[in-house]
Every structure is written in structure tokens, then in C-alpha cells.
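Lab notebook, bench 4. The sequencing result for the construct came back, and we need a structural model before the next group meeting so we can plan mutations. Quick request posted to the team channel:

Model the 3D structure of this chain.
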Amino acid sequence: MQFKTKTVCVGMVALVLIALGTMEAVAAPNAAAPQVATSSPPVEARRARLGIGVDAGLPDGAVVTMVLQPASWLRLAAGGGTNSMSLGVRGGVTAVPLGAGPSLTIEGGTYRFGETNAGARGLLKLPGVLDAQSTLLGYNYLNTHVGLDFGRRSATFFFHAGLSFVHGRLRGVAAMLAERGDGDTTVEVTNDPTFSAVMPSLKTGLILYLP
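Done. Here's the predicted structure in C-alpha cell form:
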């Protein structure tokens, strides 16, 4: 009986050892297996875009700009153009809260002195006495516009309108009056006349983005 009892005990110990060895063999590959990442890949940050814009309006004239779009709702632009009298520069910022649709634009620009013409005199309500080509006109302006911007990817078309604040200066008025004097009346102009105006303004344009 004692021999059989020892045999049974030895057999049970052997079974336990075999079971433990099997569990270790199964657990080892699982422990060595690499863990699979379950997190989603990071979203690539949207890079800023560059573009070229062209637009025409009043009092801006015709302007070509370089455009930077650091975010889908924001545009920065700077460039130069002509108002048919002289050359000038302009810079501004446009906010499009929804990426397309309603927009708000603030811009500032300046034009050098140039010979007055019929279009400029009519636009700024200047007197007809300034017909002489010797009279030069230069002005600064500030645009505050609301508008609509269409397109998001390769191109944007826009129409903006609002108010512009214009401050200008005239040169050559003294010489012009002297030429037109009748000899009996003397008019002396010691400083270049200036003028300021608040006027409705508008423009339309197109922006093409670089790939």
C-alpha cells in the first residue's frame, strides 16, 4: 500500500509539472507578440497656401497681389497697381469665417501723384477747373468691405463692397491759376490743397493658388 501511495503521489506531481510547462509555453508567444497600436494616425497639419490675385474697383484701380492663406478662414494680400493716373501699392487682410461665403476685408493703399483725368475728377467730385494737365493728384485710402467669396481649392472669386476713406493732395494748382489769370486778379496759393472724402466703393477679383 505504501508503494502504491508513493507511485500515485509521484504521478500527480508529474502531471502538475507538465501542466505548468504547457501554460508557460502558451504564454511565452503571447508575451513576445508586439502590441498593435489602436490610436488613429495623427492628422497632418494644413499648410499655408500662396496665390496670385487680380482685382479691379474704386478707388483701388486695377491691382495685382501676392496672396498668403495661413488658414482656411484668413487671407493676407499685398501688391501694386494703377488708377490710370499713377502707380500705387495696397495691402490688406480678409476674414472668411466659413472658409467660403460671407467675408470681411480691411485694406489700405496709396497712389503717387499723377496727372488728373476726367475719371478721377468725376469720382472725387473735383472742380472742372482742374482740367489742366499740370495739376497732379495723389491720395491714400482705406477700404472697409463686406462681400462674398466663392471657391476653396485652386481658385477664389470674390465681390466686395463697402465704404472707403480717401485723403488726397493736389499739386500745381498755383501754376494753373496763374496761367488762367486775366492780369487784373491775383490768386496766391501757398500750400498744396488737400481733400478728404468718404465714398461708397466696390471691387471684384480672382485669386489663383499655386500647387
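The chain has two domains: 1-34, 49-209.
Will bring this to the meeting.
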